[in-house]
Amino acid sequence: MTTRRIFTGRLLCTSMALSAAMAMAPSLATAQSKLKVAAIYTVPFEQQWVSRIHKALKAAEARGEIEYKASENVSNADYERVMREYATGGNQLILGEAFAVEAAARKVAKDFPKTSFLLGSSGKPQAPNFSVFDNYIQEPAYLSGMVAGGMTKTNKIGMVGGFPIPEVNRLMHAFMVGAKETNPKVEFTITFINSWFDPPKAKEATFAMIDKGADVLYAERFGVSDAAKEKGKLAIGNVIDTQPQYPDTVVASALWHMEPSIDRALKLVKDGKFTAEDYGPYSMMKHKGSELAPLGTFEKKVPADIVAKVKAKEADILAGKFTVKVDDSQPKSTAK
């Protein structure tokens, strides 16, 4: 009788242990199925361009798809070391911006052929595992230019950029052509501050443009909208929508959505099909990688005829009837 009780008790304990293990199995499987992803940024998380990548990755983390680690404000000299640490740490996908560290980043990718790399770059993909991306948001930049052309009273627009690299140049050119479509008389003053994150410097450059008559400012960098607000002028945003912070200043913005690119990369890595390719096109409007932000507080302030022209052009872009020209050359001031 005692033996039977002991045996029965053992069976019960074994059964309970199996049940507990089975209950835990899904969570263990989920943990194991999460991709390990890391990102390296040379600027703060809140910087416009980087914030869009960070936002898309945080969304994937919130969905439980990835384990995400990131480093901000990494110097160019330290970039390769951090990349190698993340690669040796077992991360399956590594993201970041390689514009100033192209040679080093590509060298790391060669040394870790089983790791997938997706980095912002002006160069081409590098087989087998180094993909590149870019903010190809020239389409909404063109549309925001149309809005700017219709809002300027002085016919003078000031444009402040970081560095004159293709990623910035193409957006400025698209904006300028768009502004010319709605206002052939508009002139542009262009300044590059040679920094990706120096709001005070961008602000001073903007003040100088306002002093010369600019009443609409293209805010490619942080600091421009602050200057426009202080002087009672208007601004056009880039990459992110800052109208909530500047409701009486920021008229429109060309928004970048990194989610289509990030989600594609995650799926390919998970499926074991990640290869070297150019993700640039996934930032275009047809892939929902970019859009013109809603006019919001300026919905009633932008002339109706300008709004109609912008909506018609947007429809043509989405229908493939109109293509915004990509011009990577450095834009020049046209103001006399």
UniProtKB/TrEMBL annotation:
The keyword Signal applies. The keyword Signal applies. Residues 49-262 form the ABC transporter substrate-binding protein PnrA-like domain. CDD domains: PBP1_BmpA_Med_PnrA-like. Keywords: Signal. It comes from the Bacteria. Residues 1-31 form the signal peptide. This is BMP family protein. It comes from Acidovorax benzenivorans.
